[in-house]
Amino acid sequence: MSKNHLLMLSALAFACAAFPAVGVPAFAQSVPARAGANEKPDVVVSAAEFKRGASFAAFMPKDAKGAKILATDFEQLVAPNGSMRFPLSDKTCLVTVGDKDGKNARTLTVLFSTGNTGAGKPAIVPAIQEWEGKTGEFQLDSGVSLWCDPALMKKHPLLAEHVNNFRRDLFALTGVKLKTAKEKPAARAIVFELGADARLGEEGYELAVTRNGVVVSGVAPVGANWAAQTLLQGFKNSMGGKKGAKPSFPCGNAADYPQYPLRGFSYDVGRKPATKEAVANVARTMAFYKLNDLQLHLNDNFIWLHDYTKIPCGKNASAEDKKRALDEVMAAAPTAFRLESKVPGLTSTDYFYTKKDFIALQKTAEGYGVRIVPEIDVPGHAMSFVKARPDLMYRGGVHKEHDVERAAMLDASSAPYPKGGKRTYRDETLKYVQSVMDEYLKPSGKEGKVFRGGVVHIGTDEYYGSSEDYRAFADAMLKYVKSRGYTPRLWGSLSYKRGGTPVVSEGVQMDIWSLHWQDPQEALDLGYDIINILDGDTYIVPSGTGSVGGYGDLLNLQKLYGPTWAPHVMGSKKVAPGHPKLLGAQFALWNDNSWRRDTGLTDYDLFDRIQKSSAVIAEKTWATGTDRPFADFEKVLAEIDVPPGINPRFRMAAHVPASADELKRAERENADVSGGGKVFKLKGGHSFVRLPRDNSFAPNYRITFTVRRAAAGKGEEILFSAPCGAFKAVQKETGKVGFTRDAWDFSFDYVLPVGKTVELAVEARGRDVTLYADGKKIGGPVRHKFPESHKISTLVFPMRTIGAPENAFNGEVKIKSVEQL
Fold it and tell me: How many CB atoms neighbour CB 116 within 10 A?
């Protein structure tokens, strides 16, 4: 839904009772009801009555004559100015009308009755909006060409990237290598063009599929990209997971477009690190389902800071004890800032993204239509900033029980800063924070700006200080981000932090995350563009317990898919469906259970939560979730699964450690390979064989290998490594066999002898992993730090590099067998 039209809706207050009862349109009795829709349509537009360019005013109910269109959830059908477009198949649109000042608002259910129900529509996630089926199917084979006008690709480099990505992904999926046509083929081709009906919006596209070929027409390059995802899903579905099955796509015409322009996911990589490879997999998976906004929460700290001290620090503790406790927490409690920075002591030491890596990550996501929105959270959740500048620690009252919580907050007050002359703490904090952010917002070097996506999130949630201090700080930060040429985004907090200090709203995006902190209608009245990311519905806090909904281990996906949730529904509050300043919706994954409360979940464990949640949010933000029952949706999703070209579930390769061809192409330094690629002689220190691709594999498995340790060395000795972690013959600190993953070290109760060949076997079943030595069961691992909270030992066995560039094993390792259990 395009948001070009800003309507005057400041007086609208869409309470629950103001909306019609939820029901099922007569033509779709077998599918879920739609939030905000009437059981019977208020307006029916038939093909016979419709005339191109006809105005909605002609179809307005008698008791609504003269009313103004205030909102429409599919501007591709009914535009804010009343012009209409007739769809290819039956379609429902919700149009909110009322007085010019927004009073007497009502939402009309408008049915476009085409005489075509869209039968035979390809099973895609999210559902295609409009489908006109034809007889037959297009079959993909090696005789098919790919064509896009070279002049068009030169004019639109992003289109060229989308087309090339499609070629590569299609080959990964089907093994079919499309020929490159020198000129537009007459038949047996997949053709990419621009020029679809502009009324579909920038992300819209049209498909024309015949037995002889496929024509993709995007309104803009991003629409062509979404069409490519539709084709990939359709081809994958047609194969049904069967080897040798011929990929095909049903013949017909499609018009497809999003209900909302922002469809996304907020990922907490601050508290718990996610590898850049894991983030790239998430971005690619989001794109597969046409989600387009990946918000990365890049800094945070452990929530329960009082866990790191036994010194009394409650409200009634003495000033001396509070100071001692605070000093202890500042020294011991963990925090994270996951970006490379020039500021001494700011960047995390366990895992961080270099500026170069972060730029590359954004470029990869952009190639698939996903914008990465970096979030640097201040003044709260900012212990990393405080540790680097303890003089700027928050000095006011703490609303929580423990005084040490102030260590996570910068001071944004107007109190005089002792070293700043007439400057205040807020002045000094703003100067400090903005100097950090300038590293990413101002051009530097050949790559230019580190933050590329045009939107930057400044956090600003859960500040303990006064409302006026908060509002002044937020206003200054928003204006600063805008002055650097970006659109700022923040966590909505102005309903709780009421005050007289104005906070800029024009061109500002606001996350509606808590009704206690921010009322959505108040945000709209103030002029903010809002995003539905309400905590009770959309927050995952992974724990491994299997709890569902409301900050649980899993989202309640069936509820989100059903009629009680929609982007315009935020708990007990509703705004008009398709409100021009309602951008869309996101879900969030918060790693609150981190550091000393970390149960042991990995990127691999979290991916399943992210993938399924992404698909449901896509279904309800691109489409409406009314095409099929949830059980049928789950079946389609299981078939479509993840995009080609990535392996986020670490499915085992046909040849482990690698095929003969992969071993030929492997990078080898100071290491020997023999025994048909099964025996590796490593020489310690810098000694490795790096495979051309990551062949790491996930449970359930059993890998058996022999090792002969040549000599006792100092420190750790790595046998196998990959971005997901490292398996070690000698673990640091303990000297035992162990592994490292997610910045945690684990050890088994076994020391590898020197000069003796030992057969080791690692068996992983679900979340448990067991070590065997010469057939004897050694048992599971123990986490070095905070073993009391360690519940999950999931081990994706690392198999990208045998050995390592540093601290490699010194000796011989022979892989005997790898079994999938």
Answer: 15
